[in-house]
Amino acid sequence: MARSDTPVMVWAGTAWVEGSPRIWDGKTWAQPTAARFFDGEVWQAKAPAPMPFPAYATSNASLFGRADYVGGPLPPVRVSDVVVSVCAATAMPQLIAPSGFIAQAHQLSSGHWIAVATWPYDGRGGDVVWHVQDSTSATTMNLVYRGGDISSTPVASVQEIRQYDGVNRLPLNSAGGFTTVFLVLAESVDLTGYAWPDGVLPRAEQLGDFGSLDVSLLAADTPGTGSSAGDLVLDTTVDTAACLSIQVRGVNDGRPTWILGDTTASVLGTTTVLG
Q1: How would residue 224 be classed by pLDDT, with cut points 50, 70 and 90?
Q2: Which of 52, 115, 152, 265 is 20 to 30 A from 82, alpha carbon to alpha carbon?
């Protein structure tokens, strides 16, 4: 029996020469192309190249009552996408699935907890499960970003967290480069609306039940870097609030990109030119 690495020989009319193997594509014998893999949506020959600013792809969010385990399926996700998963609960969340990734957990002044985990999706598993140990309420959110540099995804993705009490405006944390995701957690009995500042793109929300002190999660992002992204304006004064900033890393193209509306770092004609 010939070994698998034995070359295929064909008669060229005057001599035997090494030929190219062919495969049946359903219609004809064709030259094989590079090995492909299914990324969850299409067949790919290789992973996509990272971009300077990973782009938001999709998200989902859910609200739960008393439970030990919360979560659910990921939104439509492709291999090499970066997943940002968030859980806020009355008990400390622990990431159960997928396994092998570390979540950063922070307890707020209200007693609530918020945990964040970030990982590159590798095609295995489609559910996210958080253990919240008899939590009386919990909110989960999963955001998917495309074009990130998965080779440099940090274990600890939360760059900064700030807390506020009795406010209706939240100064957003400074953006840290590449794509910065802003997560705002607010506790209120009557929060129904809000407005992000210019240059910050709203992505997902999960408002708490109206009339009860539930946790609301709001998410937005912005490319580039800056010192004053602006304020998130709420339609009511909330009991407590927290703002977390998370970096989704891309590839560095060596060009600075400031945030539209940054009153310190992006002043047209002074620090910024159109080009």
Answers
A1: confident
A2: 265
Is the preceding peptide bond at 76 cis, omega within 30 degrees of 0? no
Quick check: 114 and 106 in contact, CB under 8 A? yes
At 117 the three-state DSSP class reads strand
Q: pLDDT tens digits for 88-130?
A: 999 999 999 999 899 999 999 889 999 999 999 988 878 999 9
Sequence letter at residue 202: P
Buried b (16+ CB within 10 A) or exposed e, 114-148: bbbbbbbbeeeeeebbbbbeebebbbbbbbbbbbb
C-alpha 68/C-alpha 56 separation (Å) is 30
pLDDT in tens, 1-58: 444 556 667 676 777 777 666 766 667 776 666 666 566 666 766 677 888 899 999 9
AA identity, residue 227: S
Backbone angles phi and psi of 150, in degrees to 5: -70, -15
Write out pLDDT tens, residues 59-88: 999 999 999 999 999 999 998 899 999 999
Say how far apart CA 134 and CA 96 lie, in whole Å.
Answer: 15
Residue 102 pairs in a beta bridge with: none
pLDDT of residue 13: 72
Q: If DSSP codes are grouped into helix, strand and coil, which group holds residue 151?
A: helix
CA atoms within 13 A on the CB side of 242: 21
- ∠ CA 198-232-166, nearest 5°, is 165
What's the longest Cα–Cα distance across the chain? 89
